[in-house]
């Protein structure tokens, strides 16, 4: 018997969980580590399990209460059907489980199941929309080849600029000095970081870059201005699909909202709910978007 609903969001930076009863009354929430299932499936499973455990604990429920839960997980990386199947087969112990993409739950939450489009800007970036039964997607293929304007891409550009400034190939600034010092203060340390950094590690530098850009740092402003153009290109592409409203979501959404060209403002929609609301909405419907 299902007595509880659990919505879970697995992204490149963290995992989040929200627990409600069948009537939708919120009971508990939890967080975990990075949970991009496409990059590290076992790590994502561990992070999602930790978030679920915390949500149950804050609700005062024992682990065996999972057998009375229907859960929906929206995770990065599960656009690959094989990865989705492996995540769905993980031994979470839920009564029922549906796995969808993180974009699907974000869209569901933003428009409460209605038509519209979202532009997610956090560790990665992706545009995703729905008109009736039709879905459309742009971006979200990983920072090595896609994800323009994302935190991971901004972080990569900042570290490259910091190294160039150190070697006299570019003008130094407060931002380049801050990035250089934060990563160890030597070219060797920056190189070591670059060889092992995850998308979340790169993205962790993005707030520093935005802060310096807002303070007038020329190097930071150049990076953020280029990133804003990439976000606007994604926004434009969503509009060409016929949607009349786009909700900005993700950890960097507020940073970009004030930087968008005026022509985009009439199309910016305030999201009704967040990705966890979307996951719970799908759980209420038995997992079907």
From TrEMBL:
The protein's matches in InterPro entries, at most eight in alphabetical order, are given as:
ATPase_BadF, ATPase_NBD, Euk-type_GlcNAc_Kinase
Domain (ATPase BadF/BadG/BcrA/BcrD type) spans: 6-256
Q: Write down the Pfam families for this protein, in alphabetical order.
A: BcrAD_BadFG
TM regions (residue ranges): none
The source's domain of life comes to Bacteria
Q: Which PANTHER family match?
A: N-ACETYL-D-GLUCOSAMINE KINASE
Its name, as the record gives it, is ATPase BadF/BadG/BcrA/BcrD type domain-containing protein
Originating species: Pleomorphomonas diazotrophica
């Amino acid at each position: 018997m299902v007595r509880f609903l659990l919505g879970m969001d697995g992204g490149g930076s963290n995992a989040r969980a929200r627990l409600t009863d069948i009537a939708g009354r919120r009971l508990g929430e939890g967080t975990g580590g990075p949970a991009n299932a496409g990059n590290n499936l076992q790590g994502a499973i561990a992070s999602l399990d930790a978030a679920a455990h915390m949500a149950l604990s804050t609700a005062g429920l024992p682990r065996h209460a999972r057998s009375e839960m229907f859960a929906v997980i929206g995770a990065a990386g599960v656009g690959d059907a094989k990865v989705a199947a492996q995540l769905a087969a993980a031994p979470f112990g839920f009564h029922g489980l549906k796995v969808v993409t993180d974009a699907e739950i974000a869209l569901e939450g933003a428009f409460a199941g209605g038509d519209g489009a979202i532009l997610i800007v956090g560790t990665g970036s992706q545009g995703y929309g729905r008109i009736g039964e039709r879905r459309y997607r742009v971006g979200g293929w990983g920072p090595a080849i896609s994800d323009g304007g994302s935190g991971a891409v901004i972080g990569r550009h900042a570290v490259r600029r910091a190294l160039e400034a150190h070697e006299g190939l570019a003008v130094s600034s407060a931002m380049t000095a801050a990035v250089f010092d934060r990563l160890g203060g030597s070219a060797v340390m920056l190189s070591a970081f670059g060889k092992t950094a995850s998308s979340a590690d790169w993205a962790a530098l993005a707030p520093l870059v935005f802060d310096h850009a807002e303070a007038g740092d020329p190097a930071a402003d150049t990076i953020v201005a280029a990133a804003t153009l990439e976000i606007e290109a994604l926004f434009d592409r969503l509009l060409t699909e016929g949607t009349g409203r786009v909700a900005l979501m993700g950890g960097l959404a507020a940073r970009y909202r004030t930087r968008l060209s005026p022509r985009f403002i009439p199309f910016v929609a305030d999201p009704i709910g967040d990705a966890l609301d979307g996951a719970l909405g799908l759980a209420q419907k038995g997992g079907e978007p």
